[in-house]
Write a structure and sequence with these properties.
By secondary structure, the protein is an alpha+beta fold. It has helices spanning 3-8, 39-46, 109-127, and strands at residues 13-15, 20-21, 31-33, 52-56, 59-67, 73-80, 85-91. A four-stranded antiparallel β-sheet has the order 4-5-6-7, covered by helices on one side.
């Protein structure tokens, strides 16, 4: 199995002697999960087609853009901060919000992406002078 395919798998763990497990791993030894092993798969299969892996301010993560139902374009950056996934707004310019995390950290890239789309829909409603639908 080549490295790229290995990195795209969800269930990659490594044993203490360097064994690589791509399926069920022995439960009787300490294992390390490859951080982000499932991220590439999730980004490619569940996030916008324009999603790219980049490094911003020393943090590697996923940059993606989409339009809300009101037509406003958002570009966001989802990254793992060592304990949770964070999402920050790159565009549009939203004053003090741009560049800062937009909601408390979450446990997965999947949840970070889903919440970011919902957050953008709510922000778009507020910017249009309507109550947030969320």
């Amino acid at each position: 199995m080549n490295l790229m395919r290995l990195q795209e798998r969800h269930d990659v763990t490594v044993g203490r002697e360097g064994e690589i497990f791509t399926g069920d791993a022995p439960p009787d030894q300490p294992l390390s999960r490859v951080q982000g092993a499932g991220e590439a798969w999730h980004a490619a299969s569940h996030m916008p087609r324009n999603t790219v892996f980049v490094e911003r301010a020393g943090a590697p993560g996923w940059m993606y853009s989409f339009q809300t139902s009101r037509g406003r374009a958002y570009t966001l950056f989802a990254y793992f901060d060592g304990s949770d996934y964070q999402v920050s707004v790159l565009a549009p310019e939203l004053g003090g919000i741009t560049g800062a995390p937009v909601f408390p950290g979450v446990a997965s890239l999947e949840e970070a992406y889903a919440k970011s789309v919902i957050w953008a829909a709510g922000m778009d409603a507020v910017l249009a002078g309507r109550p947030s639908p969320c």
